[in-house]
Amino acid sequence: MKKIIALLLTAVLMVSCAPPASGVSKENKITLSAKKMTLRAGIPKTLKIKNKPKGARVSWKSSNKKVAAVKGDAVTGIKQGRATITCKVKYSKFGKKITKKLTAKVTVKKTKSVYPRHSAYGKGIGAKPGRVVWSHDPKSVSWNGKGYWWQPKHFNEKTILKMVQESIAALGGEKQAKSGWSKLFLAQNKRNGTGKIGYKKGQKIAIKANINGSGVFDDDDSGKTKMSYTNPVLLKCLLTSLIKDAGVSPSDITVYDVSRLFPKYMIELCSKGKLKGVKFVGRNNGVADKDKPINWSYKFKGAVNYLPTCVTKADYVINLANLKGHSYGITLCGKNHFGSFINGNEMRPPEGANLHQFLTMDEMGIYSPIVDLMANHQLGEKTVLYMLDAFICAPTEGDEITGSNSKWKQYPFNEHYASSVFVSQDPVAIDSVGADFLMNEPVVINHNDSLKNNATVENYLHEASLVKNAPSGNIYKNGNGKTVKNLGTHEHWTDPVNRKYSRNLGKKEGIELIKIMR
User: Is the same domain home to 154 and 92?
Assistant: First the structure.
């Protein structure tokens, strides 16, 4: 009897002391964070596994990939419909192999575009007409949301330089940045009627940066603000490619924004070593060319505006804008030139020019000064490249950038920074793509009432793409007496997942979006 009792006690002890299999018990049931999900096309949601056993192998599958796709634990709605996401969790318990099958029902709602659908307007411009290249690499940004977003240590310079070089190559239809730049300069000179020639040594290039967040209210040039301005590392990489790949001498390059002050650290970063000689022109040292006033194609009261000499003496312009929202809706390459002129209002030239009245009307079919700037013979007509800085994007120009208001939800960003750069030779096409991204991003529209559900922010894109017969009835000129007949092509993507435009679908006109994804 004692032997039996001893054996029973031993068995009880063995059972009670046995470790739970990989941390699994009845109390810790393996489940998904949701059994049902409702999605909007293009905006992923995460399915988490609760109480996942240590060392477990996990696989995911969608019953209908045309409706909902799953990658890792991120589920993305593709189009309206229903699908089931299945998760298999494989683990071992007491040496026994176990497979736990978990499911979640997914409903994808129909997504209605804020922008009205229409065929492509206007004619594409560039070495590859209507082409916009989008490069995305999450490794380019490593900011943890603390401190200042702009600190160079938050960005991978090697990765960003590669993104710039690959984008330039693809924009010209080439494999290398050197031949890509060559194609861009050839296309620009052909468009302007200067012949089949490329860049010549000694020709001047003016780069319009967007330094809107620096020196806004005073003469502080430390750059120590949480507001947005041109990414310093992207600027350095653009300059590096111009010098190394395009063969431009640093002394022939001027970076400017005559409405703001360039941060000292940015000037130092972008004008040392192989970049030594690059010049910076801001509000503090911009010189107005009094022989080159901006001539608007619409009569309105405001100060006389002059372009800076760094622009009027330049042979080429590069428009380096930000992809971000604005208190008037959006600000992209077109509006970037609000920082390209000088008048009596030193701190706020656009206000001195009385331009903002045309951005607050919330109407379509009205005159836009942005189109005049896009068409200007000293600005748009000289522009060899348009670029959108989309590494860390602000909801509006006045917002302080934080880790939460700059992490984008839409695919493929998935709660990370946009970590992207866009390039084009077509000013209308690149802003059309930018407008699609901004209107589709919940983080932006939820912080920006001026943009949310407001299709009138694209008024200038309609005016520009239909410039020959503008909806407003206005006759746009290039500021030098010549009537403008074409500024580029405008349309909207097919959907927020596939993001295809007319040329992607085999049509002869419209936008072509080339994706370089990492």
Answer: no
**Nearest Cα to Cα of residue 431 among 395, 390, 399, 397:** 390
Q: Minimal CA–CA distance to 154: which of 406, 411, 333?
A: 406
Q: Say whether pLDDT at 212 is over 50.
A: yes
CB 280 within 8 A of CB 256: yes
Cis amide leading into 427 (omega within 30)? no
**SS3 (DSSP) at 293:** strand
211 in the same domain as 69: no
Q: What is the reported pLDDT for 8? A: 46
Could you give the residue ranges of the DSSP H alpha helices within 294-387? Answer: 309-312, 333-336, 349-352, 369-375
First to last CA, the chain: 71
DSSP class of residue 463 equals: H
Task: Answer whether residue 487 is part of any domain.
Answer: yes
The reply to whether 220 and 173 lie within a common domain is yes
Reduced to 3 states (helix: H, G, I; strand: E, B; else coil), residue 287 is coil
- For residue 470, give the DSSP letter: -
Query: CA–CA separation, 475 vs 453, rounded Å?
Result: 29
DSSP for 266-286 reads HHHHTSSGGGTT-EEE-TTT-
- Nearest residue to 264 (alpha-carbon basis) of 224, 225, 222: 222
For the whole model, what pTM was predicted?
0.91
Among 50, 74, 109, identify where a domain stops: 109
Instruction: Name the nearest CA neighbour of 384 among 119, 180, 215.
Output: 180
Hunting for tokens 């701190």 — which residue is that? 347
Report d(CA 285, CA 140) in Å as an integer: 33
Single-letter amino acid, residue 367: Y
Residue-wise pLDDT for 52-99, tens only, equals 999 999 999 999 999 999 998 899 999 999 999 999 999 998 889 999
Partners of 79 in beta bridges: none
Residue 5: pLDDT above 80?
A: no
88 plus 214 within the same structural domain: no
Pseudo-torsion of CA 434, 439, 442, 445, nearest 10°? 110
The reply to whether 454 and 307 lie within a common domain is: yes
The continuous run of DSSP H or E covering 383 comes out as strand 383-390
pLDDT mean over 239-256: 99
Contacts 24+ apart (CB under 8 A), 293-300: 294/341, 294/372, 294/373, 294/376, 294/479, 295/477, 295/479, 295/480, 296/369, 296/372, 297/367, 297/372, 297/474, 297/475, 297/476, 297/477, 298/367, 298/369, 298/372, 298/474, 300/354, 300/357
